[in-house]
Amino acid sequence: MIYCVEDERNIRELLVYTLETTGFSARGISDGKELFGELKKESPELILLDIMLPGEDGYTILEKLKSDFSTRDIPVIMVTAKETEFDKVRGLEGGADDYITKPFGMMEFVARVKAVLRRSQKQNDDKEVKCGELRIHSGKHEVKLNGEKIELTRKEFELLQYLVENKGLVMTRNQILCHVWGYDFDGETRTVDVHVRTLRQKLKSAGNMIETVRGVGYRIEE
């Protein structure tokens, strides 16, 4: 089930129709209050979340979702007319898995939904990887720094895991985008930069292991 949180009826119905005609189950929701009511009944595979909503806006709803243990792992795609870099960065830093600006093509929309679901449903091997002072447990989606647990979003975790699995190698932004987000659309590499920045901050001293290779991408070195 995919929840489409959108206050404009025409857009909401179009999103639900598009998803259902491509094989998904979808439900239209008009605001945050209705969303949290539905979440008590059923946990969806994905939430499509508009920003400009009556009552609580999308950013506030996203913050609540990511701060609640029962909903924090539900992937979220921001779907909004707000297209400034600030708005996009704010959504991604808040834990959104992707950000789509209106208007958009239905084929790209469906491709992004599939990519997010593919990444969120991928089964990880239950293994622990070491990198410097970091311990990364893929099965538990857990990262520890000197024994202290570091809270990461799903995408931050997958980004770190990908860099560590390719330790010492330079990963281009497009390679990271394809592997972690599951797609490659021109102009979307800013998504990678935003997540690298927040990841470095959360990893504290270990964040210095993530090196920027100017004009190319990133690599992690112990």
TrEMBL record:
Gene Ontology MF terms: phosphorelay response regulator activity; transcription cis-regulatory region binding
Family matches, as Pfam families: Response_reg (PF00072), Trans_reg_C (PF00486)
Location of the OmpR/PhoB-type domain: 126-222
GO CC aspect terms: cytosol; protein-DNA complex
CDD domains: trans_reg_C
Keyword Transmembrane tagged: no
Keywords annotated in UniProt: DNA-binding, Phosphoprotein, Transcription, Transcription regulation, Two-component regulatory system
InterPro entries linked: CheY-like_superfamily, OmpR/PhoB-type_DNA-bd, Sig_transdc_resp-reg_C-effctor, Sig_transdc_resp-reg_receiver, WalR-like, WH-like_DNA-bd_sf
Modified residues (4-aspartylphosphate): D50
This protein's record includes keyword Cell membrane: no
PROSITE patterns: OMPR_PHOB, RESPONSE_REGULATORY
Matches recorded under Gene3D superfamilies: 3.40.50.2300, 6.10.250.690, Winged helix-like DNA-binding domain superfamily/Winged helix DNA-binding domain
Biological process terms in GO annotation: regulation of DNA-templated transcription
Residue ranges of DNA binding: 126-222
Taxonomy, superkingdom: Bacteria
Domain Response regulatory: 1-117
Cited function: May play the central regulatory role in sporulation. It may be an element of the effector pathway responsible for the activation of sporulation genes in response to nutritional stress. Spo0A may act in concert with spo0H (a sigma factor) to control the expression of some genes that are critical to the sporulation process.
Annotated protein name in UniProt: Stage 0 sporulation protein A homolog
